Records
---
Amino acid sequence: MAENSMITLKIDGVQVSVLEGTTILKAAKDNGILIPTLCDLEGLTPYGGCRLCLVEVTGSPKLFPACTTPANSGMEVTTNSERLKSYRKMTIQLLMAERVHMCAVCVANDHCELQALANQLGVNHVVLERHFTREPIDSSHDFLVIDRNRCILCLRCVRVCDKIEGVHTLDLKNRSKDTEVIMDLDESWGNSCSCTGCRKCAKVCPVGAIYIEGEAITQTKHRDVAEFITARRNNR
Amino acid sequence: MNLSDIQRIAEEENEFQRAYKYRINVCCSSGCIPFGAFKVLKAFEDAVKELGVENICKVARTGCVGTCSIGPAVLVDPGEYLYQCVTPENVREIVQGHIVSGVPVTKYLYNNSGYFRKQRRLVLRNAGKIDPTRVQDYISVGGYFALAKCLSTMTPQGVIQEITNSGLRGRGGAGFSVGQKWGLVARAHNTPKYIVANLDEGDPGIFANRTLAEADPHAIIEGMIIASYAIDAQKGYIYIRSEYPLAIEALQKAIAQAKSMNLLGDNILGTQHKFDLELRFGAGAFVAGEETAILMSVEGRRAQPRPRPPYPANQGLWGKPTLIQNVETLANVPLIILNGGTWFKGFGLPNCTGTKCFSLTGNINNPGLIEVPMGITLREIVYDIGGGIPSGKKFKAVLVGGPSGGCLPESVLDAQIDYDSLKRVGAIMGSGGIVVLNEDSCMVDTARYFTDFCIEESCGKCTPCRAGLARVKDIFDKIATGEGELNDVDILEKVSEYIINASLCGLGQTAPNPILTTLRYFREEYIEHIVDKKCRAGICFKKEHKGDE
Amino acid sequence: MTTEDIRRAQLERVLKKNNYQKSALLEILHSAQEIYGYLDQNLLVDIAGSLNLPPSHVYGVVTFYSYFKMRKPGQHIVTACLGTACYVKGVKQIIEAIEEEFNLKVGGSTADGKLSLSLTRCIGACAMAPAVVLDDQVIGKATKEIVIERIRNVLAGERDESV
């Protein structure tokens, strides 16, 4: 396939040119249009789960996740209609209501992507009933801590563990609302034999679900770690 | 083996069967077995011997006749006399009367001409008439002739053209043109290519595909081999629910027979075409019926759907082009090849050809498996075929399309069965379930039941379906315990609309249908629950509601 | 050879038959559950090791599909169908009656481990709703009286002759 040919499309009325095979999200970003997302992270395989990056494509009644949909020649994309804005607000509200998101007592306060998006999109209250899950916090590991009550199931940690670190300690158990991130056979983190303690999961976590004991959050969060490593690998 | 061999087998088998004046077909499908079908079969075999008529009367074990409420059902040919609720005790009387004296025993006959009159049996053409465990039976009624015709006289493009001409649309729910889909996979550059046949009926209240597999497994296999020739696939999988032991057994046997007769494997019927088939077992996940989730499951992973594009026609199993087709769709294929696309267009509507199988259940007089031409109305199904509501109760609603279908009231019963008409009234074709509710059902509780189902079955990947449905359940819990507020109805509508548009796969995109249709047609019941704290069916407001945990 | 050795040998045959393919994980889990009755942690470690899959992946798959059981089931299993037709026809009352009569909860077993109760989403016996499955035998058009009597008979060690 001719991967390196350029194609042109319109994003929010602006004509842009990108390499064929680029996703709509990347095409928009490279041209200064930021589409909100929580599960996507450069360097990781796109997931398409959080549904924040949904965009409209002229000619289709369906919405498309910008992170997984490749840009096509001649496409007309709208990233910020009123409908999309209201859906994004709903998504943030649902994530906030699903588990415990109390910013004031969260380790990631001020360094949280969910909080930042809520501010940016103007979500100032949650009309739906909020659920306060009571999952025990696992601090059995020497320095890594997971508080599943703050998890938004973006799977960045699972993907970075599998693709970048290559050990696949993390995965999911159960399904639907009972879905949780697990280590090995649902063991406590301290008992995990496969975990290398590489800290990448804590670095990429968009919220305060995985963090490092006794380390300042500004030290921990290096969300570009996956992008950095992937780029280095590709250059080699 | 080649075409002439198939013809020879058919002739031999027909001659063998002609030697018998009578044929007793005992339905041994999942519907009749719990009521003692095997004992009845044995009793017939014994009675025929004892009464000395084994030379003129053949006793056969067959698949479902379609009348699952009167099992064990026994069909006597010639004349298609259908005996109902046969017990080993009255077998001798039936054989004595019908076979020895030649007079049907009317007191045991099922007198219900209406049930069959409006049906058109294409997919279920052989159900209840042939022995699914004998490939000769299938060949004797024209089985594998279509495959032979394809391989000897048609090009792959010709096959696709014929299917496109027929107007056949996928029976799995979405209704995509089958010919177009085959064309897409055929044109994809990558190899190898795969076929996955979907037999994962996870919907509660649906058993059409299971019955088909039990009654006529070779029709599915023949359809798959023809498809493999058209798109040049060499490997296929049938993804089947592990809860269907009888269907699994029937398919395993049929695959083994097809392999031994050179209908599967290398050089099929002496040609260059190569195709191999394997069963894959589901493990209790409704979402695995979704196109991309089924692929994950066949690959041995969590059945979480992934966004499309890329479409499976280009990147499916292990990233290779893959054709995913429901088994009912595949069973239509041999008929179309044999009789031509134009013939097939004679059934149903111009833009929606052919027939559709439905499992008809709930509060209805004649539950069972039915096959109707597209374009028939719901009223005809409920009253003419189904025979109306039992015990003098009033009709309330009909659920069309499974757990994510619509709850439709009396006023839209004249809606036709086709993809677009059903969509207009708020339902979907789904995988073919029709459940009739009488006045004892509460529509709020019904919507709540389906929401519970979809929550349980959500894969948990995307926010709208996972978190959205759970919040919808909160609202239902409030309403059902008398704490609902009028504002909740608006929130229900708003969240439902969001879930439909923002969800990743078909499960989330259709899950709110029961909520939206009950709000559309039975809004007064919601208001009653909220304002008057009253449930006219007397189901809600009980102290405790047992959850599914 | 102990029972354990025999079972392990059976599992090894299944693994071999599937060429130790990662994609055959579901088939292998099905067979393993058939051989052992349920899937415990050690078994999962074993399977993960044999297929060279991360343990968390295997655990994730097992917990995703409701058919796989990680707890030891009772000697006899009664499964109530919670499909639409059965729900409409009142299977809920039957479930409650079983819970009360035998003092157990859905998903659990009796104290003596003789009987466990589970739910399933539609066994496809909708025309005979409500349906309850007792040790592989479908009881169609069930009432709570019939079901409880059949369970009693099975618990008393009588073979069920009605089919």
---
Amino acid sequence: MPVATINDHLVQVDEEGFLTDYDEWNEDLARVLAAQIGIELTEDHWKAISFLRSDYKLTGETPTLRRVTTVGGIPTKELFVLFPKKPAKKMAYIAGLPKPRGCV
Amino acid sequence: MTTEIPQALIPKFEDDDTGRKIAFICSKGNLDMAYPGLILANAALGEGVEVHLFFTFWGLDMISKKHMDSLKFTPLGNTATHMPQGLGGLPGMTAVATSMMRKQIASIGVPGVPEMLEQIVASGGHLWACRMSTDMQHLEMGDLYDAVEGIISASDFIEMTEGAQLLFI
């Protein structure tokens, strides 16, 4: 398993760079991860990230885009603005979670 | 604060500046045949791909206000249901099979056709109706799902999808 150094901390990541240990994530790390993919986190971004983190804890799976909208209450359109082009994967990356498995 | 993520370990999210475009031609109005196009279109949008859906012939039912929420499934002629074919023709079997399929789809968290279309449009997908099919069925824009952008001819569609990857369903 690859290891990356972010903010002077060693973190476990998969071969694409997604964090693999839920507990190695923190908010400072999220800011760095977001910056790596060209996103500066605003309050609206945090709302989505927090939902992903809490939903993952609850279900053991990264929520799909649809779930972030229907359960997390953030409109799909807004997610495409906050995390352009590939919202589901970008959110998961910043939230330190695996890519969503679900198709819808 | 130092950041030393090796370049190879940052996911490549912006690969799609290649202008990838996919067009889906939806030609079937059976419940089971509505989903492949909708699911794939939704997935493509989530990957940052430009998506167009063209609804033609029976596929028009997927965007007709009258039928979009009541598409049906029949086991008739479909050996993959692994039921004796004669059963499929019994009275009421289409309703039973449709209800079972709807439950199966809902049980994995996938919504009905109108909601799938809503999500596709919210994700930036484009919906088009086929001119010849609407003429045959005497349908106008008012009869179609509100987010349908227009009724267009086959040539309009071909022109619009220049350079796109095409999927006929």
